[in-house]
Design a protein that fits this description.
The chain is an all-alpha fold. Helices cover about 70% and strands about 0% of the residues. The chain has a single domain, classed as Serine Threonine Protein Phosphatase 5, Tetratricopeptide repeat (Alpha Horseshoe), CATH 1.25.40. The protein is built from nine helices and no strands. Helix 2 runs antiparallel to helix 3. The longest helix is centred in the middle third of the chain and has 20 residues. The N and C termini lie far apart (about 95 Å).
């Protein structure tokens, strides 16, 4: 009899907890307004496994606020596709949005190194890519100095890092 009372109380508490929790329905990982575009990009990447299709798909995942899907897509891609500068640049953004600023900095440096190598062989990266990767690498370096791993969890420190990385000095000649 002594053993039945605690078990009954525990069972009653679990029942109350179950009733209080309510029902939870599944939620789409990607919002309905972005789902069709992402689905088309997934089909495009499955048809032609090239860097452009992978980058567009990963960017669509990031834009749909699902950076984990972008990290997974790029992580599962062949090494030759992952190593391209534009894919590394998108990978860095996905890592940053996933709360992995240090890994994002490493990926951004890989993108810049790949651009430097491509410039030496006579096929340089596009200017926007070099400028964007350089700017983001500077901001990520400032986040590292401040010890911030998740920029979204620390908006004040992220703003300071952004300001420190993008400040400009101007001179007036009189």
């Amino acid at each position: 009899m002594q053993l039945h009372t605690p078990n009954a109380v525990l069972l009653a508490m679990l029942g109350c907890l179950f009733l209080a929790s309510g029902t939870h329905h599944e939620r789409a990982v990607i919002s309905a307004e972005r789902a069709d575009a992402v689905r088309a990009l997934e089909a495009s990447y499955s048809e032609r496994h090239d860097a452009s299709a992978l980058q567009q798909l990963a960017q669509a995942y990031v834009d749909a606020e699902s950076p984990g899907l972008a990290v997974s897509a790029i992580g599962g891609a062949p090494v030759a596709l992952r190593a391209t500068p534009v894919v590394q640049h998108t990978y860095a953004r996905a890592l940053l949005d996933s709360g992995r600023a240090q890994d994002a900095l490493v990926a951004e440096h890989r993108a810049l190194d790949a651009c430097a190598s491509a410039a030496e062989t006579g096929s340089p990266c596009e200017t926007w890519l070099v400028a964007s990767a350089t700017r983001r690498a500077d901001i990520l370096a400032q986040l590292a100095i401040l010890g911030v791993q998740d920029a979204q969890a620390h908006p004040e420190a992220s703003a300071i890092a952004y300001h420190n990385a993008t400040r400009e000095a101007r001179f007036a000649v009189r």
